[in-house]
Amino acid sequence: MINPLRGMKDLTFDESQRFVHIVTTAIGIAKKYGYEYIETPILEETALFKRSVGNSSDIVSKEMYQFEDKGGNDVCMRPEGTAGVVRAFVHAKLDRQPLKQKFYYYGPMFRYERPQKGRLREFHQFGCESFGEASVYEDFTIITMILQIFEALGIGFDLQINSLGCTTCMPPYKQNLVGFLTEIKEELCEDCNRRIESNPIRVLDCKNKTCQSLLVTAPKLIDDLCEECGADFKKLTALLENAGITYKIDTNLVRGLDYYNKTAFEFVSNDIGSQSAIAGGGRYDKLVEFLDGKPTPAVGFAIGIERIMELVQMPEIQKEGIYMGAMTPEAVETLFPLATQKRKEAKVTLEYNSKGFKSHMKGADKVNARYAVLIGEDELANGTVWVKDLESKEEKTIALDAF
Ligand code: HAM
To answer: Taking the CB of the first residue and of the last residue of the chain, which one, N or C, has fewer CB atoms within 10 A?
Structure first.
C-alpha cells in the first residue's frame, strides 16, 4: 500500500465536508466585502518567495519545496498565497489602474516543516488580499471579516495585534533592538544569535523559554512608532473597542514573513494545542513595489483550514433528495430515465440492483434521502411509483407521468 507523504493527508468524508463548509462560508462572507476569486499557480519561480517572504525567514531558508524543473528553472511550490497574488496583480498591470482591487483564494500551500499536530507539510489556506487602500479602516474591516467568518463557523478565538511600523520608524527601532540583543547575546539561543544579524525582529518571536524571559525588557516598537504609524495604531484600537471586539496587544508579534509593515495580527485558538494560530495577516504596503509594481498599499490575511477543521460546528444535516429503487429487475429500466430527468432538479440516488422493500428503505436512510421512490410489480403493471416522504412519513402512489 502506498501511503501519503509525511505531513500530507487525504481529506475524506467528514473532513472533506468540513473543508467545503469552511470554504463556502468564507467565500459567501468575502463576496459581501467585495472580494473576487483569484487563482494563481502552485508552482512559481523561487525568486518570487525569496524577494517577498524574505531570504532570511524560516519559510524561505529552511522550509521551501524547491527544485530544478526539467528546463533547469529554479522553482518552488508556494509556501503561502500572498506573493503569488501580488505577482499576478503586477503581471496583469492592475497596479496601473486607479481602482481598488480585492481578491480571495483558497488552496494548498507547502512548507517542509517538522510535522506535528496542526502542522502539515501540505495544508490549505483561505486568504484575502485588498489592494489600493491605505486607510486603517481597511485593516479594521479585514479583521471584522475574519471575525464574521469565525462566528459563522462557530469558532472561538483570541485576537492579537501589533504594529510593525514603516520605513521611517522600523530602521531606528531595529538598530536600538540590535544594541539590546548584542548585550545579552551570550545568553540567547543559537537561532537568536543568527537572527541578530539577519533578521533581528524575529528574535522577539523565539519560543525558547530562556530567550523569552530575557526579552521581557527588550525595547518595544509600539513605544517608538512614527507619528503616522502611531496614529494608525491608535485608530485601529479605537475602532476595535468601539465595535466591542476584544483584542490583546502583543509587542512580540512579528509574523514569520518579512513583507509586513504597520498592522500585524493573528487569531489564535486555545482548543487546538501548541500550533494555535488559526489565521494571520496584516499590511504590506511595500510588496507590490518590491515585485516591480507601482507603489500600492495592501492588506490581507489567510486562515489555516486544517487548523480550524475540528473547531467548526457543522450545520445539522437535513434529509435531502430522492432515493430510487426497484423491487423487480424489469422496473430498473423504468427508473433509469426517471432518475436522469429528476437529477435536473434534485439530488438522486439510484440503486441499480433490484432489492426487497426493507433493504431499499435502509438504503434511503443511509444516504439521508428525503423521499424514497420505489417500483414493485404492482406499480410496474399500473404505470405508477410508490413515494414516501421520510420526514413527514406520508406515503402515496402516483402515476409515473405525474411524478
Ligand atoms: P501565515 O501566518 O504564515 O500567513 O499562515 C496563515 C495561517 O496558515 C496560519 O495562521 C495557520 O493557521 C496556517 N498554517 C501555516 N503553516 C501551517 C502548517 N504548516 N500546517 C497547517 N497550517 C498552517 C500567511 O501565509 C500570509 N500569506 C497571510 C497573509 C495574507 N498576510 C497578508 N495576506
So the answer is: N
